[in-house]
Design brief:
Elements: H1 10-25, H2 33-46, H3 70-84, E1 86-88, E2 108-113, E3 116-126, E4 133-135, E5 148-150, E6 155-158, E7 172-174, E8 179-183, E9 196-198, E10 203-206, E11 219-221, E12 226-227, E13 242-244, E14 251-252, E15 266-268, E16 273-276, E17 290-292, E18 297-300, E19 314-316, E20 321-327, H4 328-331, E21 338-340, E22 345-349
Parallel strand pairs: 3-5, 4-6, 5-7, 6-8, 7-9, 8-10, 9-11, 10-12, 11-13, 13-15, 14-16, 15-17, 16-18, 17-19, 18-20, 19-21, 20-22
Antiparallel strand pairs: 1-4, 2-3
Function: Modulates cell morphogenesis by regulating cell wall formation and assembly, and/or growth polarization.
Protein name: Cell wall hydroxyproline-rich glycoprotein
Signal peptide: 1-30
Length: 351
């Protein structure tokens, strides 16, 4: 199948040429806002109207190539589209991304298909710390056997394509430390097997969907984005052992339902605009080892129920507006090694 292309002014080709040269010269450095904006626009031009897979997704397949099965052929289409969306690859990570043997591509891992052990499929992508600049094309939705997608510490820009909703086997999704934008990537809500979600250190914004806490996740890393909403009451349904809200723009109170998080081991609220009083239900978090609520606007006193946190090792309530006393029962928690409550209006009182 062929795709018709529109003629573009010669000046546009010159602009693209000089931009690519600029990127190559500055390989390995942080993207400027202008470069990130350029890559985002390039991605949006590549997306169909609804952001899903294009109808002619297989138009560029070389008819002379042979594939062991159709899933590897689809993976080839996806990875070739991704390679074309790369504008800077300082470590030449994708240098061997050519030919039909996609299982030999650097950062691409194959395994027997879950539904047919007799065939090999692309089961994982790991491009962590590759410092690649580019975007995610919609063709990546063809990687329907992928269970692990790790691209942290790169310079990827743009949005998470809607076509990722087709990756229904996704188990670990890590796009942290990039330049992704837009609202919370709701495609993650459609993955039934997802356990690990890491989207920290990006530019995601807007509200946090309450449904995220309905999922059977073990780790939820949301920190260092631009989310601004209340923390949903559904947090009490979460099965996660680690949740980080740090350095966003969350407002309101910590929901009382937090006490229902029986698997919770670490929770971090540092650097938001949260306020109100701490709910007594915090004392029900029997498995918590780390609780950090520093640098917010919490008021009132520390709840006496904190004395029930038998496994807590670190607590930080500094830089708030707390008043009253810190009881000796909190200070003598059996595993507590680091307790910070400075820059409040608190007084320690032994009892």
């Amino acid at each position: 199948m062929t795709r018709k292309t529109m003629e573009k002014p010669y000046g546009c080709f010159l602009l693209l040429f000089f931009f690519i040269i600029h990127v190559l010269i500055h390989s390995g450095t942080a993207l400027t806002d202008e470069e990130a904006s350029f890559l985002t626009r390039r991605q949006l031009l590549a997306l169909s109207e609804n952001g899903d897979l294009p109808d002619d997704m297989e138009y560029e397949v070389d008819l002379d190539l042979n594939f062991a099965n159709n899933r590897l052929k689809r993976a080839y289409i996806a990875l070739q589209a991704w390679k074309k969306a790369v504008y800077s690859d300082p470590f030449n990570t994708t240098a061997n991304w050519f030919g039909p043997n996609v299982c030999s591509y650097k950062g691409v891992f194959c395994a027997p298909a879950l539904d047919d052990q007799s065939i090999m499929v692309v089961a994982g992508i790991d491009l962590n710390h590759a410092d690649i600049a580019g975007y995610l094309p919609p063709e990546l939705g063809l990687l329907t056997d992928v269970a692990l997608f790790h691209v942290n510490s790169n310079r990827f820009c743009g949005v998470i394509p809607k076509s990722f909703s087709k990756l229904t086997l996704m188990y670990e999704f890590d796009v942290s430390n990039n330049r992704f934008v837009g609202p919370f990537p709701t495609v993650a809500l459609s993955w039934p097997s997802l356990k690990f979600l890491d989207i920290r250190y990006n530019d995601f914004e807007g509200k946090l969907p309450p449904e995220i806490f309905d999922k059977d996740l073990d780790a939820i890393f949301l920190n260092n984005n631009r989310f601004e909403s209340i923390i949903p009451e559904t947090i009490g349904k979460s099965t996660a052992s680690v949740v980080t809200f740090a350095h966003n723009k969350f407002t309101g109170c910590i929901p009382k339902t937090i006490g229902q998080m029986k698997n919770l081991n670490e929770i971090v609220f540092i650097g938001n605009n949260l306020g109100g009083c701490f709910p007594n239900e915090i004392g029900s978090l029997n498995n918590v080892t780390v609780f950090d609520a520093s640098s917010n606007g919490f008021v009132g006193s520390l709840p006496s129920s904190l004395s029930g946190l038998a496994n807590v090792e670190q607590m930080d309530f500094s830089y708030n507006k707390l008043t009253g006393f810190v009881s000796d029962s909190i200070c003598k928690l059996p595993k507590l090694s680091n307790f910070t409550f400075s820059y409040n209006f608190l007084t320690e009182r032994l009892r």
